[in-house]
Amino acid sequence: MDFLVLSHVQKRFGDFVALEDVSLEVHRGEFLCLLGPSGCGKTTLLRIIAGLELQSAGTIVQAGRDISLLPPMERDYGIVFQSYALFPNLSVADNVAYGLVNRKVARAQRAARVAELLALVGLPDSGAKFPGQLSGGQQQRIAIARALATSPALLLLDEPLSALDARVRVRLRGEIRGLQQRLGVTTILVTHDQEEALTMADRIVVMKDGAIEQVGTPSDVYLRPATPFVADFVGKTNLLPAQRAGERRVQVGAQRFECEISATARDGAGLRIFFRPEDVVVRGVHGATPNSAAAVVEKIEFLGAYSRVTFRLNGIDQPLFADLSLNDMAEFHPRPGDTLRVSLPADRLRVFAAA
Amino acid sequence: MSQVAPGHPLSEGPARARRAMRMGVHWTDRVAHGLLILAGLALALFLLAPMAVILAKSVEDRAGEFVGLANFAQYFATPALLRSIWNSVWVSSLVTVLTLPLAFTFAYALTRSGIRWKTLLRNVALVPILAPSLLAAISFIFWFGNQGVLKPLMGEGQIYGAPGIVGSMVFATFPHALMILVTALSLTDARLYEAADSLGTSAARKFFTITVPGAKYGLISAAMVVFTYAISDFGIPKVIGGNFNMLATDIFKLVIGQQDFAKGAVVAIILLVPVAVTYGVDAYVQKRQSALLSARSVPYVPRRSRGFDWAMAVFCWTLALLMLAVLGMAIYASFVKLWPYNFSFSLDHYRLGLIDAGIFGAYLNSLHLAAWCATLGAAFIFATAYLLEKTRGLDAWRPFVRLMAVLPMGVPGMVLGLGYIFFFVPEGNPLHFIYGTMAILVLITVVHYYSSSHLTAVTALKQIDNEFEAVSASLRVPFWRTFFRVTVPVCLPAMLDISRYLFVNAMTTVSAVVFLYSPRTMLASVAIVNLDEAGDIGPAAAMASLIVVTSALVCGLYYFAQAWLDKRTQAWRH
Ligand SMILES: Nc1ncnc2c1ncn2[C@@H]1O[C@H](COP(=O)(O)OP(=O)(O)OP(=O)(O)O)[C@@H](O)[C@H]1O
Ligand SMILES: [Mg+2]
């Protein structure tokens, strides 16, 4: 049985449905990210798991124990809020020891545990300082240390990095992930930053309007999005309206492409096809290459390791994007106005039923 | 048709969905709920019950029989009593109309001009808060009374009656209006003025299109506070009113003089009406104002302008000197041997008039009362506000406790005091034993000044992170540990504010306690009323001076405590 099992969890605020029928299993020791746009109910779900909010319906089982109706004090988790909620009048060491004092841990043992945790989060010498004397990123790590001090089986993090500047954020991603792997603590992190989710998570739960759209590993979610919403929300995407034009063939504007059409998509009236900018191939493409067409280059953005080329295909009145490596750029050196032959490999095209 | 067996998933599904979910309650949460219930019950017992008894008394005759609205009918058929309503209303309106422009100009000078000594001016203007309201009345008698130094200025007129009441009340209400208006004017967004300047708007136009509308809510709020203060005050009309009757003095005469409790209850209810109206308006305005504030507004930095600053300085200093003249006269007179015949310095009023007359104990009682209110009262108010704001559960009970916390603002002290007599004097009440003790004085004073203190506590609590309690629960630390280790230290400045406010008001209040003292628990402020009634105006001035000096000293102590605290906690406060 999985470590944490949510079944048919629902949450209403008056008439407003914040969560509708969320079911989810979290494996022991995994790092799970709840990802979704603002207002989709991520925080609400996290607070329900913590017992800070009561679900309107549904059950939660943690480590085989039904915790659906247990107050926070009787659950087993550590939590870090976006605001960190560090106690300003207590020293860093006292903050970290806050949960230990109550548990009748001997003083010497407590000091050792605090030192251990401060070392763990990479701030071994900050025990005597007050939270206000630390930087945002350091406060963040102290909040994690405090949450971990009592060795909870579950760690909950609500947008812990969103208040930090971009560079610190990227560094802390790696640190939190490393810490989690060393301790093996089951962790649920809420974020609306897809890059954060892709780089940190074992699995990602993509949410929209109070419901789960897809649960999968980062590569699953990125390469095989289950819905157009996921495709669009995670990573850069080309999404085009299309019609069915055969068993394995779709019509997009004046173009036809070969691809697999899933059973669910097949029954829909219209279709949408999806491919990533980096799936567009320019090397070795000629007139006879399947799924190839002449592209007119419109704009080129230099983005460091690659360049994003905006192009149009004949008969499709929507700009499309292709990411070309520096090698491709050096070989084909496209310029706005140029025509370039591109192909969209069949195994990279995904077809959804139109919404 | 097949029956679905109990326990079968089909029978369980809908039943489960229908039953509302209820979170389990941890025993520490039960402690919080228990405390909150106790706090609510205490407020019900010491606020709601006495008020309810007033309502009951107003529809009973002397024998306790139900007589419907007969008492009201009788009241409205008595022209002398009816005149009091009119007197109360027009005097309070006049006080409001006079105080507001003075306080607004003063506040404008403090916030929008480049005059110097602003802190000093502000503190002088706030001095009346430290004194019982009737100190002003006593001073006016020494200045303009029958034997007053400026009596000739009065010509044929008399200070006793409406003129003295209005003058004293303007003095007493001025600081209350000033504080509200200073806050309102400091909130105005400087960007509005910058925009107006870039459009070349004239100074007068800026004043009427930006300043006045910006302070509109502050003005309304100040007007309501001044009006309520004036209509509920008892000390001033009692001392300087002469034969001029107002509602508050009528209650006193009916209850103490004529023992006509039913009629007293009727007047109390009539007095509640205008107060309730102004209170409602104020509550509405406050709500609107908080919506107006934007976190990003830019504070206004006054620019110097010679002519304007001069005019403002002259205005402020004139007013400040007038206020010092009122305050100073009472203190001066307390040291004069025999007014108006022998102006030599003497301590007779203190030595003979207070100590030898056995009245000095009243001063000590007042200190006792103030100390209890400032400690136990402040602690109760803060703890209740904490339980309301930061604990969870018991959702049906919370609105009631919240209402009890803000209701006292709408109850004049005389009315509350009358309710306490009605409720606690009957022998049948198990709490009868507190009647005539210090405890009942502490209770009524804390209840009377509950609302402002409560709002101060709530504001401070709202400023600290809402998730402290959630973090503590996740660490399985009971809430009281976090309360004592984090909430109290973080909110200590606000707690000191509450404590000081209660101390000063306990020293100066008359109206709430005038019905409730016993010979053993006579208070300094009430002693002034009695001395004045007996014609001992010198000792009355001495007692009033003692109160002012004590309040001022205690405020000084609080100031140093605050400064010391700031220094000690500097490391984590920034
Ligand atoms: N106490 C509440 N009362 C009413 N509505 C609420 C309450 N809490 C949350 N909501 C609503 O529920 C929805 C989901 O809120 P939630 O805080 O879970 O969103 P979120 O996914 O965390 O968004 P964000 O990324 O902005 O934090 C929102 O529309 C919010 O307005
Ligand atoms: Mg959120």
Quick summary:
The complex is a heterodimer of chains A (355) and B (574). Chain A is α+β, with helices and mostly antiparallel strands and 355 residues long.
Structural notes for this entry:
- The complex is a heterodimer of chains A (355) and B (574).
- Helix content of chain A is 27%, strand content 32%.
- Chain A has 355 residues and is an alpha+beta fold.
- Chain A has two domains: 2-230, P-loop containing nucleotide triphosphate hydrolases (Rossmann fold), CATH 3.40.50.300; 238-353, RNA polymerase II/Efflux pump adaptor protein, barrel-sandwich hybrid domain (OB fold (Dihydrolipoamide Acetyltransferase, E2P), Beta Barrel).
- Chain A has a six-stranded mixed β-sheet with strand order 6-7-8-3-9-10, with helices on both faces. In chain A, strands 13-12-11-14-19 form a five-stranded antiparallel β-sheet.
- In chain A, helix 2 (92-101) packs across helix 3 (107-120), helix 2 (92-101) packs parallel to helix 4 and helix 3 (107-120) crosses helix 4 (136-148).
- The relative contact order of chain A is 0.12.
- With 574 residues, chain B is mostly helical.
- Chain B folds into two domains: 34-52 and 347-574, MetI-like fold (Orthogonal Bundle); 78-334, MetI-like fold (Orthogonal Bundle).
- Chain B has helices spanning 9-18, 27-58, 70-76, 79-112, 118-126, 134-144, 162-186, 190-198, 203-214, 216-232, 235-240, 247-257, 261-292, 306-334, 348-356, 360-390, 398-406, 413-424, 438-448, 450-463, 468-474, 479-508, 524-533, 537-568; strands spanning 336-338, 342-345.
- In chain B, helix 6 packs across helix 7 and helix 7 (162-186) runs antiparallel to helix 10.
- Classes of the chains: A alpha+beta (355), B mainly alpha (574).
- The A-B interface holds A 50-52, 54-57, 68-75, 77-79, 81, 83, 85, 87-90, 98-99, 101-103, 130-133, 146-147, 149-150, 152 and B 16-17, 21-26, 28-29, 465, 467-468, 470-478, 481, 485-486, 489-490, 569, 571-574.
- Magnesium ion (MG) binds at residues 42-43 of chain A.
